[in-house]
Design brief:
Elements lengths: L2 H20 L8 H7 L5 H9 L1 H15 L5 H15 L9 H29 L2 H30 L11 H13 L18 H17 L1 H9 L8 H20 L1 H4 L4 H18 L4 H29 L2 H34 L4 H26 L4
Length: 384
């Protein structure tokens, strides 16, 4: 078996894991329907159906950073895929919002495993420039997963929001794909002479990751409720816009090796600010909303793989999983807190919570964070 064939199979496995990550947004297009179906539930809880998985994802990210020295990465990923698949069918047991919320939270176990180990797999099998290219492919795959998942979810949602749950069958498909294609390299070897050590770069990237996703997640949590005029309540339009977001992420991921530089992180943040402005100004115009979705997608497509490359290059192989885990905890915490924090800030500043107000707060917050990042990079190149 040639080396290129082996690497192709590994990349196929990485794509499968990436699709598991994309399932975080499986019900994004139907949030508006869910809000109408459960009118007694607070809007922040509805939005947290997307961010709730990050609660257990944070826990699993930290645990996985330690478990890789006891259990092989392949076995952990297979367990994560199974959990991802089964949680899509839990809500069918009872017509209950709390059961739906619980199933979304449990999905976070699979999400935490996937987000931590997907990048670790890339770092293990690919080095140098090849690592940057494959990291871009990984990010593009997450985007591709979001395209397939959200568009399909939006179409299924036209029959009723419950039909969107079926998209979690992707978890089982990924499980069989990874079982067939990903080599099992055993546990992560370590010894007393090579302890797991992190550094200031990990802390810096985790901090900007928290801010990036505190604001970026508002694209998904508010989109289906933001549409107005003839677009209001359309799950297919919401799904298509999320598909554009993901498509932009795919495009950037595929060319990441050609465009990355020390200012890629703040560039990603500025991109979201531009996209949010389009969302604020044109909530009833599909074409211009797509432009906004595209810039928001560029933000994630640039930010995540660049952060992953910086992290994997800044620590030893033994510490890679833990460094990624720290980043994932920061990202998940930002996503988890986003609805409550930004809705509260919107209420304090504007006197009411609307999707436009939340996007306004997010765009300003992201722009300020990006400017701070530029200053830090220019002075001491902490994030580069």
């Amino acid at each position: 078996m040639s080396d290129q064939y082996k690497k192709a199979k590994i990349i196929l496995s990485i794509i499968g894991i990436s699709f598991v990550q994309g399932l975080q947004f499986s019900i994004s297009p139907v949030l508006g329907q869910i809000q109408l179906y459960y009118p007694e539930v607070n809007v922040s809880l509805i939005q947290m159906l997307i961010t709730a998985p990050t609660l257990l994802s944070m826990v699993m990210s930290v645990l996985v950073g330690s478990l890789v020295v006891r259990i092989s990465k392949k076995k952990l990923i297979l367990v994560g895929c199974f959990i991802t698949g089964i949680t899509g069918f839990i809500p069918f047991a009872s017509d209950s919002f709390m059961l739906l919320f619980l199933s979304r939270t449990i999905y976070g176990i699979g999400l935490g495993i996937a987000t931590t180990l997907n990048v670790t797999v890339v770092a293990e099998f690919f080095k140098g420039k090849e690592r940057v290219v494959v990291m871009g492919i990984q990010a593009a795959s997450v985007g591709a997963g979001m395209v397939v998942i959200t568009v399909a979810s939006g179409l299924l949602g036209t029959k009723g929001f419950q039909y969107a749950y079926f998209i979690h069958i992707i978890g089982f498909i990924a499980m069989f794909l990874i079982a067939a294609c990903l080599p099992d390299t055993g546990i992560q070897k370590t010894n007393q002479h090579e302890p797991i050590k992190l550094n200031k770069t990990v802390a810096a990237i985790a901090a900007v990751g928290f801010m990036e996703f505190l604001f970026l997640i508002t694209f998904s949590t508010n989109l289906s409720m933001h549409l107005s005029g003839s677009l209001a309540g359309s799950t297919s339009v919401s799904g298509n816009l999320t598909g554009v977001f993901s498509g932009a992420q795919i495009l950037v991921g595929l060319i990441l090796g050609l465009i990355t530089n020390k200012y890629t992180i703040p560039t990603a943040m500025f991109s979201f600010t531009i996209g949010a402005v389009f969302l604020i100004l044109f909530p009833s115009q599909a074409a211009l909303l797509m432009v906004g979705a595209m810039f928001c997608g560029f933000s994630q497509g640039l930010f995540v793989p660049t952060a992953m490359v910086i992290l994997s290059n800044s620590v030893t192989p033994t510490a890679t999983a833990m460094a990624i885990a720290c980043f994932n905890v920061a990202v998940c915490l930002g996503q988890l807190l986003s609805p409550a924090v930004l809705n509260t800030v919107s209420k304090l500043i504007f006197g009411e919570v609307t999707t436009s107000n939340v996007y306004m707060v997010s765009s300003i917050g992201m722009m300020i964070t990006a400017l701070i990042a530029v200053i830090i990079i220019s002075k001491n190149r902490t994030v580069q």
